[in-house]
Structures are given as C-alpha cells and as structure tokens.
Known about the structure:
With 352 residues, this protein is of the alpha/beta class. The chain contains 12 helices and 13 strands. The chain is globular and about 65 Å long.
Amino acid sequence: xxxRDGLVAEVGPGLRADGDxxxxxxxxxxxxxxxxxHAHCFVGSSDFxxxxxxxxxxxGVTTWVxxxxxxxxxxxxxxxxxxxxxxxxxxxFLNISAIGLMFxxxxxxxxxxxxxxxxxxxxxxxxxxxxxxxxVRSQLEVxxxxxxxxxxxxVRAADALGGRVxxxxxxxxxxxxxxxxxxxxxxxxSHFLHGRGHGILxxxxxxxxxxxxxxxxxxxxxxxxxxxxxxxPIARAAIAQGFYPDTISSDLTSGGAAxxxxxxxxxxxxxxxxxxxxxxxxxxxxxxxxxxIGRAGQLGTLKRGAVADVAVFTLEPxxxxxxxxxxxxxxxxxxxxxxxxxxxxxxxxxxx
Length: 352
Ligand SMILES: [Zn+2]
C-alpha cells in the first residue's frame, strides 16, 4: 500500500519504495483504522470521559463516535473542548435529553421535559457536520413512567434531521419488540447482548423472530459493551445461532477503561474467542460501522482514494483472561495486540 497526501494512493503486490519511507508490516494484520461506533468522550464533565486521543491512538481507533454524552444544552461544550481538539476523528449522537449524561445518579430523563424535540433538532442542525443522529436510553430506571415516549421523541427529532436513532435498551420499560417496532432501517440497537430484562433470546435461548426480522429490515445490532451491557452466555448463544453483532463497539467510559471493557481491541478479542469468525470481527469495527454512520467507502476501508487511517495488529496466541459485565470470566486463546496506528497517512503511534 502506498500513502500520498493522507490518502491510500496504491494497493497491491509488487509496489516499489521509489524513495518513500517504508513501514514493514509483513505478517501482521493490517486493517483500516477502527471505528468505535459507541464510546464516550467528555473528559471532566461527567464520569463519562476517558482521554480520547491517548486511548484511540494506542488501540488503532481512528474514528470515535460519542454515544450521547451530551444533549442540546451541553453539546457545544463538548464540541469546543473535546471534538474540535482531538486528532482522532470524532462524530456524535446527540442525546434527546437536553442535559445529556451529565449526572447519572439522577437520570437524564427523570424529568421528561428534558426530552425536548425542538431543542434537539436545533442543535442537530447547528452541528450537522458532527451530529449523526439522536441517542436515547430506553431503560426502566431512566425513563420511569414515561415508557416509550422518550424514544418516540428521539425518532421524531431524528426524522426531522434525516439522522439515525441509537437506542440503549438494557432493562427496557417494555418488551424489546415494542422498541424494535418503532425503529427505522439504519437505526441502531445498543447493548443487544445485555443480561438485564427483556432481550433478544426467547425462553428456550433462541434468537427471537422479531429480532431477526428487525435485522432483515436494516436495524443495526451494536454491542456497546460498557460496564453493564454484555453477558457472555447471551453472546455465545447469539453467535452459535449465527446472529453476529453488526458492529462491535466499546461504550468506553473512564470506568469501563479501568474495568472489564478496557478498550476496543479487547472487546473484539472477546467476540473472536466466543466463536465469531475473524473476518466478521474485522468487518464489525470497519466496514459495518462505516455504513452505520453513512461513511461507507470513505472510512473503514483501505481501497484506493480512502483516507489512510490504518491500524496494524498482531493476533497474539496465548492464554488471556476476559471478563463480561456480569463478572463471568473466560480464557481466550488469542488477542489483538496493537502495533502501529496511522491517522491520515501519518504515523500517530507505534509500539515501543
Ligand atoms: Zn454509552
């Protein structure tokens, strides 16, 4: 692969150096820069932000999508202090709650009026270069008696913006099917492998028909691991039945980085060790999330003309300990060890 002006200029065997600097990555896993479809980034404004660039560059992540840390009343600050100062490419889902995820002890939808559709549409239009759609947490403890109303408002705002809805569905206030019924093609179900409340499996442990039907009409099923949202037995059952995640994301927070999530390559390794084929794991952090954010063919690819965001890993054999969000442990035989990250054609990080 040859890189020129930050873009992939040539790909294929037999390329000659022609005076260019050469990075030898023979025998390594050379991937498009990873896209983390759901992570958090607002350092210091909630318990929600790891330091994006430090983590991104040393884990091969070149596109980082914030999963609704801020809403119409707080987005501007995150833009000013984080998004516009990061070298990792940053995009975001705007929380339907105007206050975003500023103080989780009192949830962002504790007062339903925070779910202000007009304010969300206004912010979405003001920041259309960065905002991809609307995030909503449809969790019983968050929405209380409001049921599906916050999700309905999120869909209205996203409709007006021509954007997507990203819905958090751990311990939903209604059966998952009622949430799926409101989603449009391209909308994203976050945390679909959670182990709390109504989920994707029926009483016999089978992926339910309504879930498969939602995928068939274009709803995206995203891992969004986080501190509370992946249960290995559910992931194992889904994978055994061929229901792989469309996208693998970390839902990284500072707590998650210090805890069971660690980072995106660790999350990928969990799915590899749970039986998901390598090619599907790779697609779920490159081409699939690129499509999910409307950047298919531009990001998550190394074809000629694409941005030269590149992540190089070794697939390291050994015995590695992984933990899900319920404290269950698993020994895996492989993990992704980051070696080198290029951002727009420049070496951003390399393992010492
Ligand atoms: Zn999240």
